[in-house]
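Lecture 7 notes: from sequence to structure.

We start with a single chain of 231 residues. Read the sequence below before looking at the structure.
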Amino acid sequence: MLNARELKVFYGMIQGLKGIDLQVNDREIVTLIGSNGAGKTSALNGIINMVKSTGSVSFLNEDISRSQTHNIVRKGLALVPEGRKVFTNLTIEENLKMGAYNNLASFSVLRDRMFELFPRLKERRTQMAGTMSGGEQQMLAIARALMSEPVLLMLDEPSLGLAPKIVGELFATIRQLREDNITILLVEQNATAALRIADRAYVLENGKIVLSGDAQDILKNPEVKKMYLGA
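Now the structure, written as tokens:
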């Protein structure tokens, strides 16, 4: 579904990603793990062309390397950014409408589907997003991205700053999305939780992939345990 080859990302004179190869297959959960500054967010931003990058990226067998971000979203790829970035001065329902800018004719159907997936959003549909808890904002950020009807959803640090109970609910939702035929590319600070639900994983260090393979094998890898899993 997604192939990146020799993907490099630049922030002015600083190189955030140093030429990685990455693949995501249909209905997989693939996770990127690594320390802060390893290049995980850069990989997602490079794929969706939000930063200066080189290399090639194909999505559904189409080269999107030079496509504008909003056109990539139209093709079925969406990103939930780190920090949620909901529109705090808009209501929950208005945030969902912003996510459906490509699908306004289907807004009511898509909104009701999100309310089924996240019942708390329905209860608070007229509430300003800025007054919601962190967990509720994360639900809204995911729902807003899903309003574009993506086939591949990229999640950047979705559990950051959330209480353990909410994190458990969040990962259950991610598994449910895969059951609903949405492919997931997950960047997550909670490496153990991410590896437990993922099919495959890539380990990044200093902008390079240093290890990749079956997520369960990586979860058991002694070096990975020592470096990233606190074991």
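The beta strands are 2-11, 14-24, 29-33, 52-59, 62-63, 77-80, 152-156, 183-187, 200-205, 208-214. Keep this in mind for problem set 3.
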